[in-house]
Write a structure and sequence with these properties.
The chain is an alpha+beta fold. The chain has 7 helices and 3 strands; from the N terminus they run ααβααββααα. A 3-stranded antiparallel sheet has the order 1-3-2. The longest helix is centred in the last third of the chain and has 15 residues.
Length: 139
């Protein structure tokens, strides 16, 4: 029996005995604003005092990929007592996961990563930064 004959037998058997299972539904993809129920998401990342100068120095390198490529609004308050970077989704945000990637990117920069290294968080899927504090040190 050849491969073509086996395929023909399978097709004939399928026509005589239709599948018991229902066909898989075909749903259109959700739009970005439908995923979050049309709500604007907002996140605040605190800026430690030691990272103020690097933040001011590299602000354009931080701002450009977030605003232009990921379509997330970003602003900073450095002169205020509440030093922080604020992120907010827009209606043009293509993917809601971009919001989390941008928050991780800014957080990585605040931890001390270079901008070039932190940009990898925006570009590479399934990449994240995990950190912890060591409070108990025995001497």
């Amino acid at each position: 029996m050849t491969l073509a004959a086996a395929a023909a037998d399978m097709e004939e058997d399928e026509r005589q005995h239709p599948s018991q299972f229902a066909h898989k539904p075909n749903f259109p993809p959700l739009k970005p604003d439908e995923i979050s129920d049309g709500k604007i998401q907002f996140r605040v990342i605190p800026v430690p005092g030691r990272r103020l100068t690097p933040l001011k120095k590299y602000w354009l390198a931080i701002y450009t990929p977030i605003y232009e490529e990921m379509k997330i609004d970003v602003r900073t308050y450095v002169k205020d007592r509440r030093r922080r970077v604020e992120l907010k989704t827009r209606s043009e945000t293509p993917d809601i996961s971009n919001f989390q990637k941008c928050a991780d990117f800014v957080h990585a920069f605040m931890l001390g990563f270079d901008v070039i290294d932190a940009v990898a968080l925006l570009r590479v899927e399934e990449l994240y930064v995990e950190s912890f504090e060591i409070k108990d040190v025995k001497r």
